[in-house]
Amino acid sequence: MEQTMIETAQAATGAAAAAENGADAGVTAPAGTETAGLGGAETERVSMGKFKTAQELVKAYGSLEAEFTKRCQRLKELERQIALAAPDDGATKETQPSELLKDSRFVDAVLADGAIREKIISDYLKDLRTVNLPRVIGKEGDFAVLPPERPRTLKQAAELAEKLFR
Questions:
Q1: Residue 37 in contact with residue 28, Cβ under 8 Å?
Q2: What domain count does the chain have?
Q3: In 130-165, which ranges are continuous DSSP H helix?
Q4: Could you list the mean pLDDT of each consecutive 10-residue stretch along the chain, which spans 166 residues?
């Protein structure tokens, strides 16, 4: 494409030079050219948009091509990275929660979220409220280690009642 633009620019400058010399160079004006008559002599001007000379146009095209090449290379690199990260069978890999919990960065990010932390704490406190705690005996709050003593005879019941009333 660059070669075509250079040839077009050269043809236009060659035709303009031939017209100035009054000779027919045998070059036809490319599309997008203007022919103007000035004092009987015809000159051709190639419309190159914002570029004043063909050299500026070629220079701009070269820099554009270099930028395009860089972007294509970057795109290829990203496609290669995606292909390496993707599973071989073409199916998308779904990460299991147990695998995510092995990643300490993920766990830290989850715990840093206030709403998630509050949910964990409230669930923990709710579980604590539903636990059946053992009954305590006495004022010290000791746990009952042995089952309470039950009298088997009337004599044992009288002795136990006497101990309680003292």
A1: no
A2: 2
A3: 154-165
A4: 55 47 44 49 68 88 93 92 71 74 86 88 86 63 69 92 87
CA 84 to CA 4: how far, in whole Å?
40
Closest CA to 36 of 46, 26, 27: 46
Quick one: tokens of 71? Answer: 């972007």
Domain containing 9 equals: 2-74
Which of 35, 42, 31, 34 lies closest to 5, judged by CA? 31
**91: exposed, middle or buried (C-beta count within 10 Å: 0-12, 13-18, 19+)?**
exposed
pTM: 0.29
65 and 107 together in one domain:
no
Residue 80 included in any domain: no
Residues 59, 56: Cα–Cα separation, whole Å: 5
User: Are the CB atoms for 150 and 156 separated by under 8 Å?
Assistant: no
